[in-house]
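The following record pairs a protein chain with its ligand, calcium ion.
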Amino acid sequence: MRGNTSITLERWASTWMVVLVCLAVVQPAPAGERVHFSDFDENIGEGWSTNKIERPPNPKRSKFLGRFAGNESARLTLEKLPEHAYLKLTFDLHVIQSWDGTNTSWGPDRWKLYVDQRVLLDTIFRNEEEQAGSLRGQQHYPALLPEARNKFKTGAAVTDRLGYKRTDGVKDTSPDATYKMSFVLPHTADTARIVFSGINLQEVGDESWGLENVTVEVLGADEVKPIGDEAWAGWWSALGSKNPGEAYHAGWAMIGHGDETVDRLSKVLLGPDTKRAAQRQRVKDLIEKLDDDSFAEREEATNALMTRWHLAPDLIDEALANTKSPEVAWRLKRVKAHQNKPDSKDPHTLRVRRAQKVLEVIGTDKAKALLQKTDPNQAKAKAAAKAGSTSDHPTSRPRPAAPDRYPAAHFREP
Ligand SMILES: [Ca+2]
Ligand SMILES: [Ca+2]
């Protein structure tokens, strides 16, 4: 009798515990709805283009999808997704053995991730320690722009856990790095094709990669909280940081807010609507000054344009197409080269370029319209690339042209 009562009480208590736990889970900001999970041990979700599974040499580590080398890719296709506004993708990326980073003799060792032709990551990894001479190299990750240079294994969550060894007998270099990747991006289609891809890698015994704990969730518009002004100020500042990793995390925080980010970027990139006409006029005036009689004025106008090009990039292109002066053309090309390849000494251009990358990944109509306004060249190039490409690998941003040589013969006397 007593036993029965206690069992009843326990049941009663556990039922209430379940209810309380449910309330606790439901009350705070809801997590997204999980539509895919693969740990490649007990759980392998549907939709993979490959069933290559690897058991790492360290018996304490679990199995993963891989190993992939050369130009191999793994594709995950999700269909019949419930209605949603955002997609959240998280996974562990294992970067295994002697990745050479930016080294051009044995690399560059690239890795790319895209969702439905939108490039989320096009980066370079390195596992080799710093070396001199022909083995020199760094990695790009974590970074929004390809100009970044980070130390080997920057941003890795754990290193040297999988148990792989070096095969070439070189000492003091490390065999693997695991990165915890997490991306939230605007997405509404009821299918998603996610491609994970290595590019230009050596054979699997030399360097390879693998995936583990791949999770895809979908989120409704109301599941993403509005951006607070303070958070935005921090992200906008970090977007111009000398540290590429800081800008990367700020950029991805921005991408996770879709069109709200586009509205805020529109204000900071173009200024308030009421000032836009005046700002375009200022760019026009500066372009005219490139042909001024005074060398100092021409220099000053060139420098001023380098920090204002995004206010009216179409006017710069137009002037370049129409000018008869070789010096004005040379100056305009310098401004364009600067916008394409910002250096870390100019946080403003870095920030604008990174903001444009953020818009590119957001990819909504609003984002595309703002990208068109602040950088018609890039929008044009992307449209052309899209029209001409049906492959798995969307064409990446064209490499910026090297600035023209100083046209000494045509240059007017200072
Ligand atoms: Ca290698
Ligand atoms: Ca390599």
